[in-house]
């Protein structure tokens, strides 16, 4: 699993949660796919196991993950990838925003501003 943490960004728990959620919504992690154990991912990322456990619990409470004793943590069957057209449009928004030096918060404000129009 590809997760990159930054010390200057959001809290580590949020970074882990957001990146796993991104992997699910983009289809890189699919329903039923097993995630690394808490201890394994914590070791891979160089963080405390409690940090990963908290991110997993949050995603579980949001129905993106399911944890079962003996079978580990898996992507929930309720979780689904975002439709390709939406993902493509989001990718184009990111590219245009970076090209124009618009940060993510401003891009989100723009998206929220135009959302009611459609």
Main traits of this protein?
two-stranded antiparallel sheet, Arc Repressor Mutant, subunit A, 118 residues, single chain
SSE blueprint:
Elements: H1 12-25, H2 38-45, H3 49-61, E1 65-68, E2 72-75, H4 84-99, H5 104-114
Antiparallel strand pairs: 1-2
Helix pairs in contact: 1-3, 2-3
Walk me through the structure:
With 118 residues, this protein is mainly alpha-helical. Helix content is 53%, strand content 7%. The protein has five helices and two strands; from the N terminus they run αααββαα. It has a two-stranded antiparallel ribbon. A hairpin with a 3-residue loop joins β1 and β2. The radius of gyration is 16 Å and the shape is globular. The termini are far apart. Pfam families: GntR.
Question: What is the 3D shape?
Answer: globular
CATH topology of the largest domain: Arc Repressor Mutant, subunit A
Superfamily at the CATH H level of the largest domain? Winged helix-like DNA-binding domain superfamily/Winged helix DNA-binding domain
> How many beta strands in the DSSP annotation?
2
Q: For the CA atoms, what is the radius of gyration?
A: 16 Å
Number of helices: 5
Give the mean pLDDT.
93
- Poorly predicted ranges: none
Structural class: mainly alpha
Distance between the termini: 36 Å
The amount of beta strand, in percent, is: 5-15%
* Elements, N to C (H/E): HHHEEHH
Strand order of the largest sheet: 1-2
Instruction: Provide the CATH architecture of the largest domain.
Output: Orthogonal Bundle
Helix fraction, binned, reads: 40-55%
CATH class of the largest domain: Mainly Alpha
Integer tally of domains: 2
Largest sheet: 2 strands, antiparallel
Keywords: DNA-binding, Transcription, Transcription regulation
Domain HTH gntR-type: 10-78
Organism: Arthrobacter glacialis
Protein name: GntR family transcriptional regulator
């Amino acid at each position: 699993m590809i997760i990159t943490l930054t010390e200057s960004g959001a809290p580590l728990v949020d970074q882990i949660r957001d990146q796993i959620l991104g992997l699910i919504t983009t289809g890189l992690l699919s329903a039923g796919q097993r995630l690394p154990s808490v201890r394994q991912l914590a070791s891979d990322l160089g963080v405390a196991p409690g940090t990963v456990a908290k991110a997993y619990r949050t995603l579980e409470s949001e129905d993106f993950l399911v944890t079962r004793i003996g079978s580990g943590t898996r992507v929930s069957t309720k979780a689904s990838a975002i439709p390709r057209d939406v993902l493509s449009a989001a990718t184009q928004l990111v590219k245009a925003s970076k090209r124009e030096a618009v940060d993510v918060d401003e891009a989100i404000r723009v998206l929220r501003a135009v959302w009611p129009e459609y």
